Amino acid sequence: MNRRLVPPLIRFGAPLLVxxxxxxxxxxxxxxxxxxxxxxxxxxxxxxxxxxxxxxxLGVTSSGSEAVELGDLxxxxxxxxxxxxxxxxxxxxxxxPGEGCNLITTFHAPLAHGEFEAGLVFQGAVEGDVPGEAVLxxxxxxxxxxxxxxxxxxxxxxxxxATPIRVMTPSQTVTLRNEGETxxxxxxxxxxxxxxxxxxxxxxxxxxxxACTLTIAFQPGSRYGGPLSSDATVRTQQGVIARVxxxxxxxxPPRPLPPPPPRDYGSIERDLADLSDSLxxxxxxxxQRWRLLPALEAPTAGRLSLTLFGWNRARRLRxxxxxxxxxxxxxxxxxxxxxxxxxxxxxxxxRTRIKxxxxxxxxxxxxxxxxxxxxxxxxxKKKPKRR
Length: 387
Description:
Layout: H1 6-12, H2 15-23, H3 28-31, E1 36-39, E2 42-48, E3 53-62, E4 68-76, E5 82-86, E6 94-95, E7 100-108, E8 114-124, E9 132-140, E10 151-154, E11 157-164, E12 172-178, E13 184-185, E14 188-190, E15 195-200, E16 205-206, E17 211-218, E18 226-236, E19 239-251, H4 268-282, E20 290-292, E21 296-298, E22 302-312, E23 315-326, E24 330-332, E25 335-338, H5 340-346, E26 351-362, E27 368-377
Parallel strand pairs: 2-9, 11-19
Antiparallel strand pairs: 1-3, 3-7, 4-6, 4-8, 5-7, 8-9, 10-12, 12-17, 13-16, 14-18, 15-17, 18-19, 20-25, 21-24, 22-23, 22-26, 23-25, 26-27
């Protein structure tokens, strides 16, 4: 108890003891006639690059009812990284009630990373004056060592079970917490196909250690039943920063089986295309009854057929053909013939329109064919001149 308050208590007796007891719960500066107050009480220099410096200004005020004669200034700094760089308080001797001054404090960041703290005490010159106190805090740390802001989802995945098509399941909630050391500015959040984002408070700046939530429900919109999955995403201007895997099953008609993939039959397709283009030209050699195709390599067992069509005026006629069966992958030559209509048609001197259709039918797959057309004119037989 301040020695200056003792005589009034004795003089006025017991009634004032209650008042004195009530005053004891107030700050020391409110009881003292001479007191100093430092603001802020905690001066945070923040993060400073190793080897750099930072400055904080502290205000010192005479908060008592009488003037304060300034005394000693103590800095409890075991690491020797803080210093008093100046201020108007160093040039003043007395502060009248309500009058103030300032102190300039400096933090010199060492090369070693770490967090530092020191106590600052400003005393009055008269014994019994309440001193002003403050705490100085700072950290020496490079920017490269700071963990960037990152949102971690809890839980990391949600399973909604099975539900009929277009029927929404009960919602579930995911919590996203920023476990980095810098803030994260979220610009958008998405639920994904078949999963509805009902509510979120994540589209904002999330400080380190802060959290937000996503409320998601499953409502399949597919035509067929079956398992569905997607990812709920949270985005910043730099891209996706968090994902939550979502799964559910739609109850509905089964999905039809996909068609079998097309089979690769190797070079026979190219060979058939080349032959269908060249066969009409082969017919220019005359109306021979039998012809033999070049060898064709079949990659599988099947049946190769050739059909020839010709036009007599506007009427289309089948003029010949042939087949070749492959019982295993091998090379073979197809022999085909012209029928009587074909022989008669090709003997005419007029141009004849011919269509060639080559068809390969594998035993285990769908057939494919190639075809081409060409106008063929047989060479005229000139009679020798008589001499």
